[in-house]
Amino acid sequence: MNRRVTLPIGRITEETEDVRTFTFYHSLDARPGQFIMATDFKEGEKPFSLSDSREGEFSFTVKRVGDFTRRLFTRRTGDFISIRGAFGSSFFMSPRRALLIGGGYGTPPLLFLARALTARGLPVKMINAARTAGDLIMAPYFQDLGIDYCETTDDGSRGFRGTAVDAVRHLKDQGGGAYDYVYAAGPELMMYHLRPLLEEGDYQFLFERYMKCAVGLCGSCAVDGSGIRICREGPALDKAQVALLTEFGSYHRDSAGRKISYKTNKPLIMEDE
Amino acid sequence: MKERLKTEFLGRVFNSPLVLPAGIMGISAASLQAVSRSGAGLVTTKSLTLKPRTGHPGPVTEPFEGGLLNAMGLCNPGVAEGLQEARDYLSQADSGQGLIISLFGTSPEEFSGLARRCGDLENTFLELNLSCPNVFDEFGTPLAASAPRVAEIIRSVKTATELPVIAKLSPNVTDILPVARAAEEAGADALCLINTLGPGLAIDITTSRPVLSNRYGGLSGGCVKPVALRLVHLVSRTVAIPVIGMGGVSTWEDAVEMIIAGARLVGLGTAVMDRGMEVFTEVNSGLAAFLENRNYRGIEEIPLLEI
Lengths: 273, 307
Prior knowledge:
The structure holds 2 protein chains of 2 kinds. Chain A is an alpha/beta fold. Chain A is built from 6 helices and 16 strands. Chain A folds into 2 domains: 4-87, Beta Barrel (Elongation Factor Tu (Ef-tu), domain 3); 91-202, Nucleotide-binding domain of ferredoxin-NADP reductase (FNR) module (Rossmann fold). Helices cover 19% and strands 32% of the residues of chain A. The model of chain A has no long low-confidence stretch (mean pLDDT 95). Chain B has a single domain (2-301), classed as Alpha-Beta Barrel (TIM Barrel), CATH 3.20.20.70. At the A-B interface, loops of A face α1, β5, α2, β13 and α9 of B.
């Protein structure tokens, strides 16, 4: 059982105007890919992927997107946040050459992974993708690791011009690149479009679904095709698990359990009354 | 599936006496099918309401030694989408796998309206959630606190549907027997007990705030088992209709205890948190081995509690 700990915020790092990293001086038993649940006991408890965890401290990186994260952004060092976790599956520490693909706000958990892989002396290539230069996050930390690091933006304002999918296609056209195992985290449609390019190899994708209990009980994050719980068997799913995912890239469920289309952002089944 | 585990309930034979209770593993067909594959004889949906509900904001669960405090707040996609999931589930279920659709309403009219919506389903049981302890602010004291209200709702549902009706009762009453009798007399085909106990409170000592956003939550898990056993025992010897016993069951020994107390079927819910979905497989094999060692042909040969 992962006990709840209520901790003062140790350090806040502004990554961009809308993205901040919250660091707590506390040792968490966590591996790359795992997430924690955070609450301020006001309203709501949300899952966040860990962007780092080491002896004596851990961090998660937050994008300001809704009421909960807006409130979190008003918090200062020393304010209390209550955390439980870490939960879920983690990335395999594949003893091979890794290609990491992060899209937008999906990048932070890959930083935790990149640190773990380089600490084992494994070669890492990282593609950091975003819509535009201002949305590229965590770049200095990846560069500090001394890995093979490149950037791509949809509008070409920094790095390669194109999406993460374009960058991987380009990499393959150039002769495949020197990697044996792919890890991707980011918007689901990015991973959906990456998948056909990666089929001859092996990979793990990091998934996001609405979570409530985070302990595998409530069924909120269970996905169609297999009933896999993203909080328990996920959030890192391997190639075989992804193959079972019939809702992949098509829909997800909201806090009531309604299916919401990725295309329209609306419920798939309209109420009949 | 092992032959000895086959259990008769309201005229049908199921692969196992184990039941997934309402509210565990949600509503989606994929999720419920995963539980059936693991070995549950019957699975129960999350309680469906007329309109979709997002439930309470988090935190909605707080594990502690011996159990779990929860206040989900009846989140569900609403009866229309919920019944689509139910149909998906049924289209893939074998004859030994049963579905219980849990319904939550606030009046006889709402309950019977929900029941009518399920009218075209086959091989399905309806369970009336009369006992959710976690929506007090919105709906007040659970209906299961009042024997006349329980009777009124069951009568109303029975006129609206041909499907067998199960009443889910609350342990949080001074005397459960008048409620159980009223449910039976009003035409309930079976009873299910217990719903979560309490409600209780968990406090964050750093901030002096309640952990759950709903402040209070129902108690489940190992700590409630003795209460569940006592109530299942009292109720099952008072009414003639079958009782689905649940509350804190996580091992095959717990399941045998519940059967000895008088349960026809046995629910396993919070155990999924600590022991995973495989808990159904494990309890089934333990139960089957017990029946075989004792030379019982089925659970109905296990001697009932002698007092």
